[in-house]
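[step 3/7] inverse_fold.run input=structure_tokens len=704
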């Protein structure tokens, strides 16, 4: 048996589990793990550890782990912080394969807690023990009754087994999934609360479960990104195994955005970075908690063989209003209604029902008969004219649920649908919800959740493998960065960008008192005169830029005017000199930036450039690096770049050159000393002319 297989057995199917700190009171937090293991029918040995008692909840108790009949596969520590650390040390010394820890007061509790967590983390390497937590509410494996958790939601009754594994950074969320899934008939292969991820991370646990025979799909509940390398390994393994990953990520609000001095930092919120990263991993992100839960069956069980791309959705309904609700939401997700093909029309006509030629397949109340629903759904699921099917059920779902859902269950049982099938219940219909859910059918209470899930199922979601290996650092650029000072001027930044492969407009730098005229003999006019100041990253806001300077003689006057404007608007700013640059004009201006996220890594940002970059905030983001093909997709994703695409007969820009520049610029992500970089604007010339970087910012990290 492989090391992962052995660990997976101890993780999900232990033959013996010890609960350290087990309380005799089954209602206490520390008493729940023993209570739930017994209540849910765990068939292995349960060994409470409590030195003050000889018996706990009807089971013999032991004073410590060393006193047990044999080494347990799995230990769950339900003690406060300091005694929990001592118990963990004992478990590691004995070689227990898996240790879960409930205690808090670690990295989430500030510097002292972080130091304690580091101490805990140092126990594990080389020991043969893997740690879940701290701050973990445990693990649940419904099929075996291994409900080793302190989460109170598992007191309510049976936890249904299913084909979906949940890995959550929030311990309370595993209870929310179970309690909300129960009335929907949704079951789970495993539920894991990862806690602080001091050792076992979300990605490592996901990789461990990829080969689990009970898991068809994953739900991740994420509060932050930790251990990015582990997540990327998991993404690759899940894709290779054909197992989808659904993600619900907290932190969409603007309050999570990081302040930065560049336009790039202001444009890229933490949520935009998260979205770009999840897309890069090939994970399906959901906006709504309800959608990720209700949509999961589309990706598990009968949904696994469904195609993962397309845009045509057939909506069959007996209630026009309910069908319109779904149609509207599908349209907002970029999907189209397939309507009824000739084969479907013949099926309906055979039942004496006429279907109008519109995009909805509206059977009206006359078509609510089970034989009609059965025939239409069967025809649609075999019809090459659509990529997914949504059945909308009206008030009959509430009043005669068994009769209403029976034809859907018959079709699913007989045909094993080869494309996504979703059901939207217009009324509040708990019984119909449960019947469909228990059969593995994706059933939804809201049109929003239904449309989100269907759109996710039809959206391609292939992860980009080996991103780090796509970086191509060069010795020349590495040496140039090594000798740069911490404070970098625009002239030096443009030199670095040119070394990376982004062409800059011709320019020269003059000192504060230097005569510029000898340097301008071969320049093409007009030129731009700009102040060089480390105190003024946005020069135009302080009068630090003069355009359309038409001769060498006027350059001196422009420098004097810039100097006076800066003295007026920013009197405390130092002036390092002046940059004189050939003025370029083109089809459009864009902003191109690189921002380094502490968890995700380097991100590339493309948007509408110039002084209004932040106002329009029309941007797209990708993890670096990107190749020319991915760069072209970024260009297509920025709506405002329609101008450069030849909008309404305007001249087309050199988008091929822009894509090459984006790809070249993204290679700067290979250099960890670069904290942030930006070109604003990049001038896009006409097709065949190329692009020019005309303004640049670069920040290096402090320290080695």
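[step 3/7] decode complete -> sequence:
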């Amino acid at each position: 048996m492989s090391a992962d297989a052995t660990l997976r057995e101890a993780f999900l199917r232990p033959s013996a589990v010890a609960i350290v700190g087990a309380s005799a009171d089954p209602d206490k937090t520390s008493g729940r793990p023993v209570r739930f293991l017994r209540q849910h029918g765990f068939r292995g040995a349960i060994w409470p550890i409590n030195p003050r008692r000889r018996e706990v909840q009807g089971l013999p108790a032991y004073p410590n782990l060393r006193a047990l009949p044999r080494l347990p596969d799995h230990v769950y520590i339900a003690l406060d912080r300091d005694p929990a650390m001592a118990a963990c040390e004992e478990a590691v010394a004995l070689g227990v394969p898996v240790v879960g820890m409930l205690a808090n007061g670690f990295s989430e509790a500030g510097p002292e807690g972080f130091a304690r967590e580091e101490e805990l983390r140092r126990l594990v390497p080389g020991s043969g023990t893997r740690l879940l937590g701290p701050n973990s509410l445990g693990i649940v494996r419904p099929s075996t009754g291994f409900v080793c958790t302190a989460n109170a939601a598992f007191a309510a009754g049976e936890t249904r087994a299913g084909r979906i594994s949940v890995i959550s950074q929030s311990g309370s969320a595993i209870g929310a999934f179970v309690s909300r899934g129960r009335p929907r008939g949704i079951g789970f292969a495993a539920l894991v609360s990862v806690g602080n991820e001091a050792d076992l991370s979300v990605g490592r646990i996901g990789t461990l479960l990829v080969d689990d025979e009970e898991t068809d799909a994953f739900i991740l509940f994420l509060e932050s990104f930790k251990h990015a390398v582990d997540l990327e390994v998991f993404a690759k393994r899940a894709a290779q195994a054909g197992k989808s990953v659904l993600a619900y990520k907290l932190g969409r609000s603007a309050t999570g955005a990081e302040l930065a001095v560049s336009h790039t930092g202001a444009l890229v919120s933490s949520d935009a970075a998260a979205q770009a990263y999840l897309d890069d991993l090939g994970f399906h992100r959901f906006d709504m908690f309800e959608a990720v839960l209700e949509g999961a069956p589309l990706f598990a069980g009968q949904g696994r063989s469904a195609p993962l791309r397309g845009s045509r959705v057939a909506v069959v309904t007996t209630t026009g209003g309910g069908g319109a609700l779904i149609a509207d939401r599908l349209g907002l997700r970029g999907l189209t209604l397939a309507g009824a093909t000739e084969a479907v029309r013949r099926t309906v006509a055979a039942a004496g029902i006429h279907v109008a030629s519109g995009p909805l397949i509206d059977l009206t109340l006359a078509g609510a008969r089970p034989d009609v629903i059965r025939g239409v759904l069967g025809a649609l699921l075999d019809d090459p004219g659509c990529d997914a099917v949504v059945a909308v059920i009206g008030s009959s779902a509430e009043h005669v649920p068994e009769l209403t859902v029976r034809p859907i269950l018959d079709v699913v049982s007989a045909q094993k649908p080869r494309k996504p099938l979703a059901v939207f219940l217009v009324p509040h219909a708990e019984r119909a919800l449960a019947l469909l859910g228990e059969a593995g059918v994706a059933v939804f209470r809201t049109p929003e959740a239904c449309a989100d899930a269907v759109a996710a199922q039809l959206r391609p979601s292939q992860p980009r493998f080996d991103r780090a290996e796509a970086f191509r650092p060069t010795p020349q650029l590495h040496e140039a960065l090594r000798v740069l000072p911490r404070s970098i001027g625009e002239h030096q930044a443009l030199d670095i960008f040119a070394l990376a492969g982004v062409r800059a407009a011709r320019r020269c730098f003059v000192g504060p008192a230097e005569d510029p005229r000898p340097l301008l003999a071969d320049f093409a006019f007009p030129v731009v005169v700009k102040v060089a100041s480390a105190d003024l990253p946005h020069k135009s806001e302080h009068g630090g830029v003069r355009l359309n300077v038409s001769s060498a003689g006027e350059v001196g006057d422009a420098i004097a005017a810039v100097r006076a404007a800066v003295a007026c608007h920013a009197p405390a700013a130092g002036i390092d000199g002046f940059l004189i640059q050939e003025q370029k004009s083109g089809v459009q201006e864009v902003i191109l930036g690189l921002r380094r996220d502490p968890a995700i890594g380097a991100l590339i940002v493309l948007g509408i450039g110039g002084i209004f970059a932040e106002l329009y905030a029309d941007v797209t983001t990708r993890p670096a690096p990107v190749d020319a093909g991915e760069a072209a997709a970024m260009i297509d994703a920025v709506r405002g770049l329609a101008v450069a695409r030849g909008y309404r007969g305007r001249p087309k820009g050199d988008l091929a050159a822009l894509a090459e520049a984006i790809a070249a610029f993204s290679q700067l992500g290979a250099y960890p000393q670069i904290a942030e970089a930006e070109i604003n604007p990049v001038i896009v010339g006409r097709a065949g002319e190329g692009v020019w970087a005309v303004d640049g910012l670069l920040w290096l990290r402090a320290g080695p």
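[step 4/7] annotate
Residues 255-267, 302-307 have pLDDT under 50 and may be disordered.
The domain at 507-583 is CATH 3.30.1490.20 (Dna Ligase; domain 1).
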